[in-house]
Amino acid sequence: MQYIRFLKTPRFVYTKDRRSGVVSALITIASDLGDTFFFQDVALAVKLLDGKSWTSLPLSVTRYAWKAGMRTLKIELDFVIKQKEMFHRTAILSVSSEQTAADDLSQSRAAGPLVLSAYSSPFGLSGGTEAEGYVERRLIIGREKALPVWEETGESIARHIWDGGLALTVYLAQSILTSEINNKGKRLDALDKILGLPGDLEVLELGSGCGIVGLALASLYKNCHVTLTDLPLAEEIIFKNLECSGLHGNINFKPLDWDQNIPENLTAKPIGLIVVADCTYNASSAPSLVRVLAELSSRSPGAVILLAHKRRHDSEDVFFQLMDESFQKIEQIQRALGTYSNEEATNVDIYIFQLS
């Protein structure tokens, strides 16, 4: 997956005659870690949306071309605003691919590069005010079901969406809506079984980051009571997403450090599903993560572990070697998130584990 990101968030600056102004921003299109840039041409639609009603018609629209070899692209959008409106009007800048936008996760797509659209934070049109350092992904996960997810524009890997979590969200969205992935090797029967059980299901997500997977589960399955966990540094972005989700009552956040004792209140109710996405890349933290998974599974016998992993380095094998010592791998499937510029598929492995 390729992600449109704001390197410089949008701001509005008046022209000298103050009869019009320019909204400017600096963007890039890159991988989830930002370590590789999108190396293909793509046409971009740039829209200035009303900050209070983004479903209304755009205030202004223009188009840009991202060319293979680019690392950044400066965006400028001319806009005329009446003087009496400038002090209370806010706007949002959206940038999306005209051909390969990947925002509808419920629809399967042909092989090829997919680009996730970006929406800025609202910013004022009184001149000089810059949008906050967040980017919103407006994801479609079902019929008339939207999932807004905010992430930071900065460098913190804890507060970004990664491919593993996105692939798992794609799987959840498509599996509940379609029969397309009912073939052997393409569907997780153990997950279907536990999600289909009557009654409430306690779900615990480790290393939630922005919380995309837990938010999707709580939105798609009303019987899921989801607890997101992560270090305190992720708390701000998680609470921002909880506030915007509208999922009051069946999703919450609790801080959890894998190197500390697991609080008793975290397992006050037996956990049925433990979710882990994009948490297996640091070999030094692998023993702590496996220990936490083992203790949680011991406290909740029969708990199923749902894990998404995009392989990046051989050092990640340490985690799976440790898992083999205490857990049984029940199922494994692979999902693709389009292709990179060199036509290599962005593959994410999704596993089901249970304590042996």
TrEMBL record:
Which domain of life does the protein's organism represent?
Eukaryota
* Pfam families (alphabetical): Methyltransf_16 (PF10294)
SUPFAM superfamilies, A to Z? S-adenosyl-L-methionine-dependent methyltransferases
Keyword annotations for this protein, in alphabetical order, are: Methyltransferase, Transferase
UniProt entry tagged with the keyword Methyltransferase? yes
Q: What biological processes does GO assign it? A: methylation
Any single GO CC term annotated in Swiss-Prot or TrEMBL for this entry: cytosol
Which GO MF terms are attached to this record?
A: S-adenosylmethionine-dependent methyltransferase activity
| InterPro entries for this protein | Methyltransf_16, SAM-dependent_MTases_sf
Per its UniProt record, what PANTHER family does this chain match?
HEPATOCELLULAR CARCINOMA-ASSOCIATED ANTIGEN, PROTEIN-LYSINE METHYLTRANSFERASE C42C1.13
Record protein name field: Putative methyltransferase-domain-containing protein
Q: Which organism is it from?
A: Tuber borchii
